[in-house]
Design brief:
- By secondary structure, the chain is an all-alpha fold.
- It has one domain.
- Helices cover about 80% and strands about 0% of the residues.
- It is elongated, with a radius of gyration of 15 Å.
- The chain starts with a helix and ends with a helix.
Length: about 100
């Protein structure tokens, strides 16, 4: 099952945990507060770094599946109002589907 999925899910969960912790600790701060913006930027940057590494490093996923997942994920991100989680979910589903089709 691992096939790289465990590390990807761990990175996504770490991003969500950081964002949830920031919201829990700073519940009195407005969403536009610089501390909230910083926490969101750090969590998204960490996930983005993992995605870039997953795209360029040799791994068990075919390069075509990686590129298809990235392209579909970016497209979904843009079409859904620049929302990270829906774009990530759609991109992962596209990666999984392309991986199954190419194997």
């Amino acid at each position: 099952m691992d096939h790289g999925w465990a590390s990807l899910l761990a990175a996504a969960l770490a991003m969500l945990l950081l964002r949830a912790t920031g919201l829990a600790l700073a519940w009195r701060l407005p969403p536009s507060h610089p501390a909230i913006a910083w926490a969101a930027a750090v969590s998204e940057a960490a996930l983005s770094a993992w995605v870039v590494l997953a795209l360029i490093s040799p791994g068990t996923w075919p390069i075509a599946a990686r590129l298809a997942g990235a392209a579909v994920g970016v497209g979904a991100f843009m079409l859904m109002g620049r929302r990270l989680l829906p774009g990530l979910a759609v991109g992962l589903a596209a990666l999984w589907t392309a991986d199954l089709l190419l194997r």
